[in-house]
Structures are given as structure tokens and as C-alpha cells.
């Protein structure tokens, strides 16, 4: 099992980032790949969790240990796999998730992709009291502003990879047309809209 990787960020896609170390490029599936924008060719530490399946060995990457711990708590819930857990932690700093679990707010939890009422109830049972997060600790990293809508396209592609329906994403994309921002910020804003 791996704890973290130190290396150079060499690639960002809608589904993953690549960290090179020791001459090897490691694919790391992350919640919001564009949170790493502006750090290409920079050295960094990314926290890891490895999932071994019959057909694949996958590495999941996290900007902080807190983000990794939220992910590990989520995948411990029956019915939540790694992709769904990434979609959940992609929502800003997860204050809404923590509050929903504390307040037993099932309707908020079912807004996440692939989370039905039964899984939301299971989340409440399994996760109540598990999230104690410092207010100052955030689970995202800032990124520099871009000046075209390539960032919006990238954001929508990343959200589709997290499991959001294209019909939802078309409405979101229309809302942001004519604006300029980073892919990371588009994702954050879109997720906040979807979670209302």
C-alpha cells in the first residue's frame, strides 16, 4: 500500500493527473484534476490510496491527508465506490457533506451522482461522528485564472467523468457562457449549484 508520492506533475486530463518520479509516470485519479492547474512541471507531494481490482490496479490521489481521509471514510460505506467518493469530495471543502451527515439531511446526500436514498441512509449510519474537520483546513488548491472557455469545457468533461449527467451539465454550461474562470473554479461553482 502507498501513502504518498513525491514527483513532478507532468500531465492533467479530465479524469486524472500524471506524476513522474524515478523515470516513471504514475496515473493518479483525483476529484478535481484542474485543482492542480498552474503546477505542471512542479514538484509536489500527493497522498495516495491504491485500489486493486481483477482488471486494474488504480491509484487515487489527494492534495491533503484530510481529503484522503474523507475519501477512505466514504468508500467504507456499502454502495459507495471510488468514483462516487471522488465525485463527493470534489465539492469544495466538504462542509456541506459534514453538515448533511450531522443534520441527517438525506435530500442533500442524494444530490451526489449515484447516491440513492438507501445509500444516503447508509452514509448517515456509517459516517455519523466520523468527520471532525478543522475550519481552516480546506481540501482544494488555488489555480491561476485562464482567459478562454477551454477551462469551462475541461470542467464539464471532469464533472462528466465524476458521473454527473450530460443533461445537468448542459444547463450548468449555459449559465457560465460568456464568463472566464479556471476549470477548478467552474467545477466548484457548478457543484455548488447542483447541490442547492
From TrEMBL:
Pfam families, per database record: HHH_5 (PF14520), RuvA_N (PF01330)
UniProt GO molecular function: DNA helicase activity; hydrolase activity
Record's subunit section: Homotetramer. Forms an RuvA(8)-RuvB(12)-Holliday junction (HJ) complex. HJ DNA is sandwiched between 2 RuvA tetramers; dsDNA enters through RuvA and exits via RuvB. An RuvB hexamer assembles on each DNA strand where it exits the tetramer. Each RuvB hexamer is contacted by two RuvA subunits (via domain III) on 2 adjacent RuvB subunits; this complex drives branch migration. In the full resolvosome a probable DNA-RuvA(4)-RuvB(12)-RuvC(2) complex forms which resolves the HJ.
Keyword DNA repair recorded: yes
InterPro entries, A to Z: DNA_helicase_Holl-junc_RuvA_I (IPR013849), Hlx-hairpin-Hlx_DNA-bd_motif (IPR003583), NA-bd_OB-fold (IPR012340), RuvA (IPR000085), RuvA_2-like (IPR010994), RuvA_C (IPR011114), RuvA_C_sf (IPR036267)
Keywords (A to Z) from UniProt: Cytoplasm, DNA damage, DNA recombination, DNA repair, DNA-binding, Hydrolase
Entry note about domains: Has three domains with a flexible linker between the domains II and III and assumes an 'L' shape. Domain III is highly mobile and contacts RuvB.
Residue ranges, annotated region (Domain III): 147-196
SMART domains: HhH1
Gene: ruvA
Main location: cytoplasm
Assigned protein family: Belongs to the RuvA family.
Subcellular location: Cytoplasm
Ranges for domain Helix-hairpin-helix DNA-binding motif class: 72-91, 107-126
Name under which the protein is recorded: Holliday junction branch migration complex subunit RuvA
Functional note: The RuvA-RuvB-RuvC complex processes Holliday junction (HJ) DNA during genetic recombination and DNA repair, while the RuvA-RuvB complex plays an important role in the rescue of blocked DNA replication forks via replication fork reversal (RFR). RuvA specifically binds to HJ cruciform DNA, conferring on it an open structure. The RuvB hexamer acts as an ATP-dependent pump, pulling dsDNA into and through the RuvAB complex. HJ branch migration allows RuvC to scan DNA until it finds its consensus sequence, where it cleaves and resolves the cruciform DNA.
CDD domains named in the record: UBA_RuvA_C
Amino acid at each position: 500500500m502507498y501513502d504518498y508520492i513525491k514527483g513532478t506533475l507532468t500531465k492533467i486530463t479530465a479524469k486524472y493527473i500524471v506524476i513522474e518520479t524515478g523515470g516513471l509516470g504514475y496515473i493518479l485519479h483525483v476529484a478535481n484534476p484542474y485543482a492542480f492547474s498552474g503546477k505542471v512541471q512542479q514538484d509536489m507531494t500527493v497522498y495516495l490510496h491504491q485500489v486493486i481490482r481483477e482488471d486494474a490496479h488504480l491509484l487515487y490521489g489527494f492534495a491533503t491527508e484530510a481529503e484522503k481521509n474523507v475519501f477512505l471514510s466514504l468508500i467504507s460505506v456499502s454502495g459507495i465506490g471510488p468514483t462516487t467518493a471522488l465525485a463527493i469530495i470534489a465539492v469544495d471543502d466538504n462542509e456541506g457533506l459534514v453538515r448533511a451527515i450531522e443534520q441527517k439531511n438525506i435530500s442533500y446526500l442524494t444530490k451526489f451522482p449515484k447516491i440513492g436514498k438507501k445509500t444516503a441512509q447508509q452514509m448517515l449510519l456509517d459516517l455519523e461522528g466520523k468527520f471532525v474537520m478543522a475550519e481552516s483546513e480546506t481540501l482544494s488548491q488555488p489555480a491561476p485564472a485562464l482567459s478562454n472557455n477551454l477551462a469551462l469545457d475541461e470542467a464539464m468533461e471532469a464533472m462528466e467523468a465524476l458521473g454527473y449527467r450530460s443533461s445537468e451539465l448542459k444547463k450548468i454550461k449555459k449559465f457560465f457562457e460568456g464568463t472566464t474562470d479556471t476549470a477548478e473554479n467552474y467545477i466548484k461553482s457548478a457543484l455548488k449549484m447542483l447541490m442547492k
